[in-house]
């Protein structure tokens, strides 16, 4: 997959997100503090990654800030984006299965290297549920 990764800082696991995705064979585009030229504030960086997904330049995105809150809020402002702030593998699995999330938001403060690896495993293996109630919920998001 082609995955856009944004962060407002290179602290914590930000650079490990990029290296782990590349190690797993994905093509990675970087934004914010992970890019040489771009503004590194979370609202701008996260917006760019979310727009990559919205406009078809990426299949998915990972957006990071210190708490994960600002990055997820910014990504969710972009139409069609379903960003999920995930703190563990169970949440990441549920975000893909029940929410068809297309953007993974991470806290650079909270996410350890071990937990990051578990989250990425669950996120990348996850598939959206075909259950009619789940499909209806996702569909309603576009009507809100
Ligand atoms: O939701 C916001 C994020 O957690 C930011 O990473 C946090 O506000 C820190 O930003 P800064 O390093 O610019 O103070």
UniProtKB/TrEMBL annotation:
Transmembrane regions listed in the UniProt entry: none
Cell membrane is among the record's keywords: no
Enzyme class: isomerase
Gene Ontology molecular function terms on file: ribose-5-phosphate isomerase activity
SUPFAM superfamilies: Ribose/Galactose isomerase RpiB/AlsB (SSF89623)
InterPro entries in the cross-refs: RpiB_LacA_LacB (IPR003500), RpiB_LacA_LacB_sf (IPR036569)
The family this protein is said to belong to: Belongs to the LacAB/RpiB family.
Keyword Isomerase: yes
Entry protein name: Ribose 5-phosphate isomerase B
Pfam families recorded: LacAB_rpiB (PF02502)
PANTHER family listed in its UniProt record: RIBOSE-5-PHOSPHATE ISOMERASE B, SUGAR-PHOSPHATE ISOMERASE, RPIB_LACA_LACB FAMILY
Enzyme Commission number(s) from the entry: 5.3.1.6
Gene3D superfamilies in the record: Sugar-phosphate isomerase, RpiB/LacA/LacB
Keywords: Isomerase
């Amino acid at each position: 997959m082609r995955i856009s990764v944004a962060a407002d800082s290179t602290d914590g696991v930000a650079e490990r997100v990029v290296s782990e995705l590349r190690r797993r064979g994905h093509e990675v585009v970087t934004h914010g503090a992970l890019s040489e030229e771009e503004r590194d504030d979370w609202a701008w960086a996260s917006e760019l990654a979310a727009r990559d997904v919205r406009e078809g330049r990426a299949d998915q995105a990972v957006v990071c800030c210190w708490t994960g809150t600002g990055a997820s809020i910014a990504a969710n402002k972009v139409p069609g984006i379903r960003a999920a702030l995930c703190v563990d593998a169970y949440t990441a699995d549920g975000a893909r299965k029940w929410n068809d999330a297309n953007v993974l938001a991470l806290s650079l403060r909270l996410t350890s290297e071990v937990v990051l690896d578990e989250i990425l495993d669950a996120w990348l293996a996850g598939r959206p549920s075909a259950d009619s109630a789940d499909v209806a919920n996702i569909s309603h998001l576009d009507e809100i």
